[in-house]
Amino acid sequence: MGTETVSVGIGPVSIDDVLRVARDGAAVKVSDESLAMIAKSRIRIEELAAQTRPVYGVSTGFGALATRHIPLEMRTQLQRSIIRSHAAGSGPEVEREVVRATMLLRLSTLATGRTGVRPEVAQAYAGMLSAGLTPVVHEYGSLGCSGDLAPLAHIALAVIGEGPVRTADGELLPSADALARHGLTPVVLAEKEGLALINGTDGMLGMLILALRDLEALLKLADIAAAMSVEGLLGSDRVFAADLQALRPHPGQAAAAANMVRLLAGSPIVASHSGPDCELVQDAYSLRCAPQVAGAARDTVEHARTVAARELASAVDNPVITDDGRVESNGNFHGAPVAYVLDFLAIAVADVASISERRTDRFLDVARSRGLNPFLADDPGVDSGHMIAQYTQAAIVSELKRLANPASVDSIPSSAMQEDHVSMGWSAARKLRKAIDGLTRVLAIEVLTAARGLDMRAPLTPAPATAAVIAAIRAHVDGPGTDRYLAPEIEAVVQAAASGTLVAAAESVTGPLS
Fold first, then answer.
1. Which regions of the chain carry the CATH code 1.10.275.10?
2. Does the structural domain 207-510 have CATH classification 1.20.200.10?
């Protein structure tokens, strides 16, 4: 567990706060101001609970069963029942970082005082996060409306002392035992509380935030890979000039091109063919248009970041307590805004991977590699070089194209047609996580291949920045030679890509990339 503590208050948590809790294991506390606001709004729920007039979520059933008035003596059972019945997920366990992000985001909404829960409910979420206890949540079960019901119900189930959890070191325990081990007490839910714990977009939003951080690094790596390929394939860096990019003023494109200029600065390989004797008029699109594709992906990420910031500032629940004390039903739990950008990002990921694979393929084709051995093989015919590494890329890119098919255009009615249009935002988020893993692997293979191609340009040497990346690779993978067992070498570079080692190597020369 991390030693840092993130404070959750009435205002929104930040993207960095979510990452600290989800990935770094930071502890969590609820601010005194927020606890006071929660207690104040709870008074309104208790007033409504005492009335004979039915109020949705307080004294009625749920969804299509909302017409049933629930008597006072059955309301604890009502709230417990919604958690048990909605904890109906199936499939593999969801990753710890996703569950922790989801828990923090639900707590953030509770902390606004808009949901009507008691302070001890919010404290229970903070206590579990701080203790490193992660409820078991399953892959399937959310339609993204009314929020991420099943995943959030599995989390709430652990809060009431039922179902399994994972400890900080991965041990699987019954929730009641794990809570007792850490001096935590299961919550007995009162009116409105069960519903308040499951009505949110927290799962899909948490995965969006995690994806945004991953893509920040991967788009830098995409520029590094493209620069190495341009260099290794004897391409031109003149097309990346700032004045040419300014003719089409997309900010992401300008950032990507500027990165590539810095990465290729001082390259003897580029200088070797930059004079008037160079016969090549212009490079293939996969080289020349690299900033346009990576730039468009950057701009898509920035749009998604705007949506994430708005969602972080939201209090998503149904019903919700307004400023003047009304308890009103609403549709803010619908995941469409988040679902759309999750799908947009999957499209961008697929295209960045697609252009990367095309550059790799150019290295391997003797007709297009400008003097390199076929497939970068040491002894072509005896050796196959990187022939099948490109097959692996192609297989991943094909999968990424399937994952780019939007989930948010689908909708399957549920709850006896009460919930007759849903967002599928959770599904969009799950496929984006898989797509990001695929992009990491595709870029790693391009960088590995480009490093081999650049080494084969000796005695010419690469730019200082790309040479630093090659050196980082050579710490794990030998240079050109006869065929070796390739899968472990690919995996070593994948890990270097995922850990940020390759970007850090480049930035040790260029300074921070955009």
1. 5-200
2. yes
CATH of domain 5-200: 1.10.275.10
- 140 is an active site residue: no
Angle, CA of 437, 316 and 27, to the nearest 5°:
60
Q: d(Cα 254, Cα 303) in Å, to the nearest integer?
A: 16
The pLDDT of residue 69 is: 78
Q: Could you give the CA distance from residue 436 to residue 438 in angstroms, rounded to a whole number?
A: 5
- What whole-number distance in Å separates Cα of residue 379 and Cα of residue 180? 65
Query: How far is the C-alpha of 129 from the C-alpha of 54, rounded, in Å?
Result: 35
Low-confidence ranges of the chain (pLDDT < 70): 1-3, 62-64, 275-279, 281
- Whether residue 267 contacts residue 462, with contact meaning beta carbons closer than 8 Å, is answered with yes
Residue 396, pLDDT score? 98
The pLDDT value given to residue 281? 65
Q: What's the rounded Cα separation, in Å, for the pair 239 and 281?
A: 11
Gap between the Cα atoms of 495 and 222, Å rounded: 15
Phi/psi for 289 (5° steps) reads: -100, 15
| Predicted structure pTM score | 0.94
Distance CA 121, CA 160 (A): 10
Structure tokens at 193: 């509380």
CA dihedral angle for residue 506, residue 511, residue 512, residue 514, rounded to 10 degrees: -80
488: exposed, middle or buried (C-beta count within 10 Å: 0-12, 13-18, 19+)?
exposed
Q: Is 30 helix (H, G, I), strand (E, B) or coil?
A: strand
Q: Give per-residue pLDDT as tens, 176-203.
A: 999 999 999 999 999 999 999 999 999 9
Task: Give pLDDT tens digits for 97-120.
Answer: 999 999 999 999 999 999 999 999
At 2 the pLDDT is: 58
- Sort strands 172-174 and 320-321 into parallel, antiparallel or unpaired: unpaired
Nearest to 298 by CA among 258, 335, 263, 334: 258
pLDDT of 420 reads 81
In angstroms, the CA 19 to CA 29 distance is 16
The half-sphere exposure of 443 on its side-chain side, counting CA atoms within 13 A, is 31
pLDDT at 135: 98
Query: Which entry of 56, 340, 391, 485 is annotated as an active-site residue?
Result: 56
> What pLDDT score was predicted for residue 331?
85
